[in-house]
Amino acid sequence: MFPLVVDLRGRRVVVVGAGEVGAHKSAQLLAAGARVTVISDAVLAQLPDGIEAVVVRPYRRGDLEGAFLAVGATGDRDVNDLLVEEADELSILLNVVDDLARSNFFFTAVHRDGDVLVSVSTEGSSPALAQWIRNAVGAALPRNLGAVAIRLRAERRALHAAGQSSENRPWAARVEALIDELGAS
User: Fold this and answer.
1) What is the per-residue pLDDT across 20-76, written as a single tens digit (0 to 9) for each?
2) Do the beta carbons of residue 87 and residue 120 sit within 8 Å?
3) How far apart are CA 68 and CA 22, in angstroms?
4) How many distinct structural domains can be found in the chain?
5) Is 5 among the domain residues?
6) I need a labelling partner for 45 at 20 to 30 A (CA). Which of 101, 159, 161, 171 fits?
7) Are 105 and 94 in contact (CB under 8 A)?
8) Within this chain, do residues 42 and 102 fall inside the same structural domain, yes or no?
């Protein structure tokens, strides 16, 4: 596996299944800025606001056309078979919930503070363990790291605007100083 942060802003994502898991995955994807379409033969849970389209009918071939990635959250092996086949043909990233062997990406447990994102994965083997690790790491980190990131971005931009390199600078010491200055600890 290769950890990667993907910009989903404005990208079409298809979630197949509208139960609790489908609703939760939809909320995560919406929070990342994705344009979410939910397809399900029945809406079994409260879907989050902001979904681009809710299609109440069974999934069928062609539903993934134009999608960047897809999530199968039905628990139905026959539907998953169709999803895997179409996603493969279209080279679309696919997560089949609770079916590791048929997924080519996994959701991670995320701790976020502004632009600072810590992502924990167990490659799908135990979401509960990933969440426990995320919580432990998040509790150990200084508060307000998002503000530190904003200041560091501005400092790097100022260096670049002045024609200077941001490489080989004592950034670790600067991070420590900003953590102290901004009361992030």
Assistant:
1) 999 999 999 999 999 999 999 999 999 999 999 999 999 999 999 999 999 999 989
2) no
3) 17
4) 2
5) no
6) 101
7) yes
8) yes
